[in-house]
Amino acid sequence: MAGLNLKAQGTHITSDDRLIFAVEVLNDAGEPVLGLKKSNFKIWQFGHLFGELPVDIVVPLDEIDALKGYYHLVRKNWSPAVNGTFAFRVSAGKGRSHGQVMTWVVKVDGGPK
Question: How many Cβ atoms from other residues are within 10 Å of residue 74's Cβ?
Fold first, then answer.
């Protein structure tokens, strides 16, 4: 079975509780994988809030040549009650090819508003 090679970095936007992952997807030959949709991605959160998170929006960035194979995965309304570092597994699949990567997101809310 062929594999996909993924790199991912996540961030939490505190102003509206979005969780966003920037994900690069390459095939075994190092070529960008294009045409992925929501159904091609899965996100799991590890730790005390363990579970699969639905991906609400996938934004392919392939209209820019230098960003072919890059996607933004957006999860709306991700708001754990505590600050901390959260581990995630991001996976992608296309046909019989699959891949996964671990990444972390640090959530730190500002002080009193």
Answer: 17
DSSP per-residue string spanning the chain: --BEEEEEEEEEETTTTEEEEEEEEEETTSPBP----GGGEEEEE-STT-EEE---EEEE-TTSGGGTTEEEEEESS---SS-EEEEEEEEEEETTEEEEEEEEEEE---S--
- CA-to-CA separations, 63 to 16, 28, 41, 70, in angstroms, rounded: 27, 22, 20, 10
CB 88, CB 46: distance < 8 Å: yes
pLDDT, one tens digit per residue, over 3-26 is 999 999 999 988 888 999 999 999
Q: Quote the CA–CA distance of 60 and 40 in Å, as a whole number.
A: 12
Per-residue pLDDT tens for 56-107? Answer: 999 999 999 999 999 999 999 887 778 889 999 999 999 999 999 999 998 8
User: What dotted CATH number matches 4-107?
Assistant: 2.60.40.10
Structure tokens at 46: 């590890």
